[in-house]
Amino acid sequence: MRRTPLAGMFAGLALALTACGGGDGGSAATEEDAAGALTGRGPITLATGKDRSGNMQKMVDAWNQAHPNEQARIIELPDEPNDQRQQMIQNATTKSDAYTILNLDVVWTAEFAANRWVVELPRGGQGVDTAPLLPATVTTGEYRGKLYSMPLTSDSGLLFYRTDLLEKAGVAEPPTTWQEMWAACDKVKALPEGKNVDCYLTEVGKTEGLTVTTAEAINSAGGTIVGPDGKPTLSTPQAKAGLDFLVNAVKDGRMPKAALTLDGEGGRRHFQAGKLLFHRQWPYQYDLANKKDGSSKVAGRFAVAPIPGPDGPGAANLGGHNYAISAFAKNKASALDFIKYMADGAQQKANSLATSQAPTVASLYSDPDMTKKYPFLPTLKTAIEKAKSRPAAVKYGDVTAAIQGAVYDAVSGKTDTAAALTDLQGKLGRLTTQ
């Protein structure tokens, strides 16, 4: 997930789960170890998800022009975050120096730091400067109070909606509740233009996107997946209400059956083809869906709003990507300088203007150039500040696999909601006490 390319209870939840995760093979590297490890200059690599905008390569090209003896090279990994994570872990467990810098999903920091796969980043002085960043994003780069990854882009789920179809249906404002969204869908479906338009889409395929979707639905209903004490909290009416929303959306045809196989990029293409009224998606879609090159049939005919919930705006998921330095890489000093270059406010502004990816520098959300191109930035900033996270566990792979398996069985009709939540409660209980 952007996944390409994104806090609420995040700090407490992350610390609780990482403390309970266990089995991390020892404590993370000390500050002195990290500082001493950041030596060596020369060529570096950046392992990352696919650069669909092409702008990352432009930024790397500019670095390379200014640093002829410290050339950076992008290594593109698969689209699916689960596959990206697996390749990074494989590289780390073999102690390979093939990857210098890792572009981590925000919830991977604890796992990679606890296993000593990445080194601590020094702050201040010759280190990185986190002071200009949104506080919620800084938390995503920390493990046990120390910084192991530098936030480069943030993210929060938004509701993309077709302004032209809502206007024709007489709907003046975007929905703030699930029921308002269904009512607006019914009005649009009654129009000739809306006959073949699907109502709503969020990721419910068996990918990392399903973990995001589950967290958003349950948090929006007032529940949690794991509580501040690190224990699963799925045996609640609120958790059931959140999962019921997803299950019934598929069952009742509010979401197309194709939703069970579509990933984030598949959903983007569905929206840009003009086949979708409401789409829960990350901000990166904004620029792509507005392209005037013929790739989007909805350019200029959509807007974004906070995601809805049962009684008002929902609890969006905190996403984003952070840069970390592999513990096994050569030329760590060059890697640190490259991270500082990419995290600089001017670079973040240029990248955001080119890609619509959300920056982590707080001042950019009120920058005139930024708000002129992206009027939704104040909404996005509020969403990021209020966002809630997926469980950030040391054994994140096991946790997310358990969530995906149980919830997919429910949304695909294999099990009912209650059985899925009971199964997931048990699995997470075992994972968080190991």
Automatic annotation (TrEMBL):
Keywords of the record: Signal, Sugar transport, Transport
Signal peptide: 1-21
Protein name listed in UniProt: Multiple sugar transport system substrate-binding protein
SUPFAM superfamilies, sorted: Periplasmic binding protein-like II
Pfam families in the cross-refs: SBP_bac_8
Organism the protein comes from: Actinomadura viridis
Family membership noted in the UniProt record: Belongs to the bacterial solute-binding protein 1 family.
InterPro entries: Bact_solute-bd_prot1, SBP
